[in-house]
Amino acid sequence: MEERVGDGDSLALIFKRLGLSPGLLHRIVNSSEEAKQLANIRPGQALKVRLGEDDGFRELRLIYNPVRQLRILDEEGELKAQTVSQALETRTAQISGSITDSLYQSAQRVGMDDALIMELASIFAWDINFALDIRSGDRFTLLYEERLLDGKKYTNGDILAAEFVNRGRTVRAVRYEDETGQANYFTPDGKSMRKAFLRAPVDFRRISSKFKRSRLHPVHGVKRPHRGVDYAAAVGTPIVTTGDGKVVFRGTKGGYGKTVIIQHGSQYSTLYGHMSRYNRKVKSGSRVKQGQVIGYVGATGVATGAHLHYEFRVNGAHRNPLTVKLPAAEPIASKYQKDFETKSAPLLAQLALAGNTLLAQAEQSGE
Fold first, then answer.
1. What is the pLDDT of residues 116-169, one digit of tens each?
2. Residue 212 has what pLDDT?
3. Engineering a disulfide at 242: which of 90, 147, 198, 311 sits with its beta carbon 3.0 to 4.6 angstroms away?
4. Percentage of residues in the chain with pLDDT exceeding 70?
5. CA 263, CA 269: separation in Å to the nearest integer?
6. CB burial readout 188-209, b (16+ within 10 A) else e
7. For the whole model, what pTM was predicted?
């Protein structure tokens, strides 16, 4: 017997459609901690039940996707649960493209899916502002894993190495996983691609006001310094902390409206103003990690429209968030340097070959 999980379905409803008793449902779900996962069924999943000749329960399978399922077997009256995953084959693939409009549209044009595009953008997020910096004619190349099921592509895996040529400047990154299973992206000489701070704290539509020593205030009509950057975005757009740190202020702060201030060590601090609301889990005194959502875009305080006001301070002095030199994260550990060089060399060579091929094709087509 098989049932496909639909919108609004529950395990009880499915058992009822299959003609199975509530008592059997209770027995199965409470047989083990692993079996309790049945309570979290989602639309699109499939539930298969096998009965014996005496109509007694023998097996239940919750099929999450083609490669993973939860099996619950009745073995002489004892229920045993097991999550089974099918091994996938892996192969290395490559893809290249040129920027003609946005990164997203250009990458889609050469066959990249959303997840691969987002991973590529995240690798270079500390070096390239994809909303402001990219230009027509910029190029990207990547090596990535494809995972195969029964010899056919099932999904994409990790990006192994990538190159982005932005306004003539080439940035390369290679993935390295150490013996502990910790994986990160590094430059060819072993410096972390990750900086201590993200360049922007929000997915913005445009910069509505830049860092200026003096500007005419849009509400008060007088000239005063604008010590941060205003990122215009829709109300409710998530705001993330640009670096690891501690929340030292969360509350209403004059014209800033709902505000969060984060201290990053002894030297750096960041301010996020005009929020519509906070992340309820982030409170004054909380420790936060880079990229963690701390609140949502709004127009509280003195604001003419929905935007995030973002400030970056070094030793208490305001710096331009768009141009300040960001401190680097830790380089690769010295004990892994040799292993990194050995494993990254063939990937970088393959990446260079793919990039040169794209360049030659572009020159032939007159781009």
1. 998 998 899 888 878 778 899 999 999 999 999 888 888 899 999 999 999 999
2. 63
3. 198
4. 92
5. 4
6. bebebbbbbbbbbbbebeebbb
7. 0.67
**66, 72 Cβ separation under 8 angstroms:** no
Question: How far apart (Å, rounded) are the C-alpha atoms in residues 355 and 349?
Answer: 10
pLDDT of residue 220: 47
For the stretch 77-89, pLDDT in tens is: 888 888 888 888 9
Distance CA 41, CA 296 (A): 30
Residue 10 confidence (pLDDT): 84
Check residue 327 and report its DSSP letter: P
- Report d(CA 45, CA 3) in Å as an integer: 9
* Phi, psi of 200, deg, nearest 5: -135, 140
At residue 271, what is the residue type?
A: L
Domains for the chain: give ranges and CATH numbers. 2-85 (3.10.450.350), 89-195+332-365 (3.10.450.350), 206-319 (2.70.70.10)
Tokens representing 143 are 């090596």
Nearest-CA neighbor of 127 among 84, 186, 69?
A: 186
Interatomic CA distance for residues 242 and 196, integer angstroms: 8
In Å, what is the CA distance from 28 to each residue of 15, 45, 48, 74, 245? 11, 18, 14, 9, 45
Helix (H, G, I), strand (E, B) or coil at 318: strand
Residue type, 217: H
